[in-house]
Amino acid sequence: MGLLSGDTLGPLAVAVLIFLLLLDLMHRRSRWAPRYPPGPTPLLVLGNLLQVDFEDPRLSFNQLRRRFGNVFSLQQVWTPVVVLNGLAAVREALVYRSQDTSDRPPQAIYEHLGFGPRAEGVILARYGKAWREQRRFSLSTLRNFGLGKKSLEQWVTEEASCLCAAFADQAGHPFSPMELLNKAVSNVIASLTFGCRFEYKDPRIVKLLDVMEDGLKEEMKIVRQVVEAVPMLLRIPGLAAKLIRGQKVFMTLIDELITEQKMTRDPTQPPRHLTDAFLDEVKEAKGNPESSFNDENLRMVVADLFSAGMVTTSTTLAWALLLMILHPDVQRRVQQEIDEVIGKVRRPEMGDQALMPFTVAVVHEVQRFADIAPLGVPHMTSRDIEVQGFHIPKGTTLITNLSSVLKDETVWEKPFCFHPEHFLDAQGRFVKQEAFIPFSAGRRACLGEPLARMELFLFFTSLLQHFSFSVPAGQPRPSDHGVFAFLVTPPPYQLCAVPH
Ligand code: HEM
Ligand SMILES: *[C@@H]1O[C@H](CO)[C@@H](O)[C@H](O)[C@H]1NC(C)=O
């Protein structure tokens, strides 16, 4: 107790304060570099953490953008952050400066999930050989997915039929489509990674979705922001385990599924799916300690594909159905096009897109309007760069505001309305838009884009081929204001699916 008596406490407090001030000054150096982007003055130690409301950062960020412009800086505790807004700044950083902006900020907490130098997965992998190797592997597996007996398009088409059957089981009663959409979409990733699908009642898929949701909630907690900024805190015994409890259970489920595939692998047969193909690479890489093909990384890659490919796609589909019940005229025009091009019997195919400009425009507009990943995934500079004339030092976290591009008022006629004509010319032909970047852009852009587009088109057209969707009688019309949380989800709603 003597140590903390009155006369030592004073000097000790002063010493701690001076130490913190110095440490803080050290971390602010970058702010004084010439042409560093402007931003609010950070508080001692906390930086701008308290000035931004992380539950719904949109309001506070909007004020900052109005005050400081399209490129502004923040400090998350001791991490320098630069936020990029608008097509010009985002494109300059992600596309023209791609080789210097494709790193990811390190996130120490994932070491507790198995993230390590040889097991970085894809999404959070640092910009380097392991990332390049795995990105290439995932992309080529997606592309050559004639691996097993069925092509990926066949898997999606069959899943769409199962989804339609499950919608029909609702017998026209009001229901929320979210859960079924989640199951259908996770079955597509399961078919890619494990060559299997789960019945919608299978307890394993129910559990998978449950823990996935827990994991997403964990990602959003403000404590996570704090420990990411001050990884030292993770030394507190038990803290890391507590913050990622759901994510750990999720990894255990993935481990079980991988083990199952290992047990049924017949090495004399060609690979059945991504896991088999990966295990072949592991065998090939035996004795090469540099390789990112190893058992620890297999679970990271598979987990990444599930977490990046599932909720994103199902949330977009939930938006699509919501927007159809809110805009019955658009729904009718899509159905008319389906009638003309596909008819009532044949299953939709990707090839139909060429003849269905209106439907393709609607799917694009759903993605633009829903704007589900408004801030994308953070990048980090791996070298000093310039963006829009501002100097951004190496090691700065970049937040790319995809939303500011998808809703850029200088590009879109009606940025804040659902307006499929954004993607149609006067003759009703589909037109590409440069500012359409829901999958981000550059070297780190979403690698699942082709699969996501396939799912969006095939699920959407299959559902509208079989059902008309409407707001349940007597229920209020749901709003189209998203719920902001990591991913922007539609407001909870119910619909009626009436066969036609
Ligand atoms: C509508 C659906 C989807 C949307 C809107 C979406 C959006 C995104 C965005 C914004 C990023 C961040 C890019 C960046 O860092 O700049 C991303 C990354 C990624 N996505 Fe998607 N995605 C979707 C579906 C999928 C699917 C189906 C898969 C898997 C098959 C997938 C796999 C990935 C992976 C692995 C990454 C990390 C890429 C890397 O770091 O190199 N995504 N996605
Ligand atoms: C991103 O852009 C949107 C739309 O322009 C804006 O409302 C939001 O505040 C911006 N967020 C950030 C982080 O700058």
Automatic annotation (TrEMBL):
Q: Which InterPro entries match?
A: Cyt_P450, Cyt_P450_CS, Cyt_P450_E_grp-I, Cyt_P450_E_grp-I_CYP2D-like, Cyt_P450_sf, Cytochrome_P450_fam2
Q: Which cofactor does it need?
A: heme
> What is stated as this protein's family in its record?
Belongs to the cytochrome P450 family.
Q: Which PANTHER family does this UniProt record tie to the protein?
A: CYTOCHROME P450 2D6-RELATED, CYTOCHROME P450 508A4-RELATED
Gene field: CYP2D43
Q: Which stretches are transmembrane?
A: 6-26
One biological process term from GO is: arachidonate metabolic process
Q: What class of enzyme is it?
A: oxidoreductase
SUPFAM superfamilies xref list = Cytochrome P450 (SSF48264)
UniProt KW keywords: Heme, Iron, Membrane, Metal-binding, Monooxygenase, Oxidoreductase, Transmembrane, Transmembrane helix
Known role: Cytochromes P450 are a group of heme-thiolate monooxygenases. In liver microsomes, this enzyme is involved in an NADPH-dependent electron transport pathway. It oxidizes a variety of structurally unrelated compounds, including steroids, fatty acids, and xenobiotics.
Source species of the chain = Capra hircus
Record bears the keyword Iron: yes
Choose one Gene Ontology CC annotation of this protein and give it.
endoplasmic reticulum membrane
Compartments in which it is found: Endoplasmic reticulum membrane; Microsome membrane; Membrane
Enzyme nomenclature, EC number: 1.14.14.-
The UniProt record gives the binding positions of heme as 446
- The answer to whether UniProt assigns keyword Kinase to this entry is no
What protein name does the entry list? Cytochrome P450
Molecular function, one GO term: iron ion binding
